[in-house]
Amino acid sequence: MPLRQRLRKTLVGRQILVGRLPTGPASADAPRGPDWSQAAPEWIDAALAHALEKPGGGWYVLGPREDFASAPKKVVVLGQELVVWRGASGELLAAPDACPHLGASLSEGRVEEGRVVCPWHGLRLDARGFRGWRCHAAHDDGVLAWVQLGDEAPTEAPILAPRPSSFIAGTIKALARCEPEDVLANRLDPWHGAHFHPHSFSALEVLERDLDQIRLRVVYRILGPVGIEVDATFHCPDRRTIVMTIVDGDGAGSVVETHATPIRPGETLLVESTLATSERPGFGLAKAFGKAVRPFIEARAQRLWVEDVAYAERRYALRMAAG
């Protein structure tokens, strides 16, 4: 046992597990049976309905914060065309993309001294507004950019799940022909992981579940038969977000936030941020080279979502066909 603790390596069948193994036992009442029977559609639907009842505060993810620099950028949320830019102090600003003068697209203009300048007639606009034109509430959480729209009961800031205090972040985006609920439904079905993503997962066992949270033990493939086994939870802090948190094993405290922003009916922007952390002494060095590590984090997430977008789109198509 001391040798095993020192090497942190074990061989299970053809899978070599490295790193710190999760120590928590499986729940005594953990679901049993093949994955297809554990992934009961009625349970997934109930968990999804529970998530959709949660507040959202009217906040919608626009994308990674670095997507929005000083130059104006056009985005669409809930069918509304917005222009997003940085003010004079670097604050995030979001407003209707149509100039209140004659309707020019402000995102085709420029920013000078924190003001967006209309490309047609030079009208300069900022957070002070102009006639009926006003900025929406916007928020930069250090990783993602958000805007507040719609008629939901507002909250002062987005509803975020706990994040590690120190992390390497990687964020990917994807467009999907579905609704946000189809993205959440994909993540509320972790049982598909080892079957649909064999390149990334070699084993997965759901340990316990209720409508608020799923806890599972999963082996992430590193290279070939080498993998890392961790315990992770999935939960929805709001109605458009689902978060995976590693709670035991290597990387405990790391989170993967999956956000679904409705663009138009049947079109959703998926934004997923991986915030990786570790207690290992070498993590500080890895963080120092975070820009070099980030592409590997994002490539892994992007590969998963090529398949998971297909899952979400298939679910949406079946829902539409069923009426």
How does this structure look, described?
- The chain is an alpha+beta fold and 323 residues long.
- It folds into 2 domains: 2-56 and 159-322, START domain (Alpha-D-Glucose-1,6-Bisphosphate, Chain A, domain 4, 2-Layer Sandwich); 59-148, Rieske Iron-sulfur Protein.
- It has helices at residues 2-7, 35-38, 41-52, 180-187, 193-196, 283-288, 290-322; strands at residues 9-12, 15-18, 59-64, 73-77, 80-86, 92-96, 110-112, 115-117, 124-125, 138-140, 144-148, 168-176, 201-209, 214-223, 226-238, 241-248, 255-264, 267-276.
- The strands form 4 sheets. Strands 1, 2, 12, 13, 14, 15, 16, 17 and 18 form a 9-stranded mixed sheet that branches. It has a 3-stranded antiparallel sheet with strand order 3-11-10, with no helix packed on it.
- Helix 4 crosses helix 7.
- The longest helix is centred in the C-terminal third of the chain and has 33 residues, at 290-322.
- Mean pLDDT is 92; it is low at 1-12.
Task: Summarize the helices and strands and which ones pair or pack.
Layout: H1 2-7, E1 9-12, E2 15-18, H2 35-38, H3 41-52, E3 59-64, E4 73-77, E5 80-86, E6 92-96, E7 110-112, E8 115-117, E9 124-125, E10 138-140, E11 144-148, E12 168-176, H4 180-187, H5 193-196, E13 201-209, E14 214-223, E15 226-238, E16 241-248, E17 255-264, E18 267-276, H6 283-288, H7 290-322
Descriptive keywords:
2 domains, 36% strand, three-stranded antiparallel β-sheet, 18 strands, 323 residues, Rieske Iron-sulfur Protein, nine-stranded mixed β-sheet, globular, 7 helices, alpha+beta
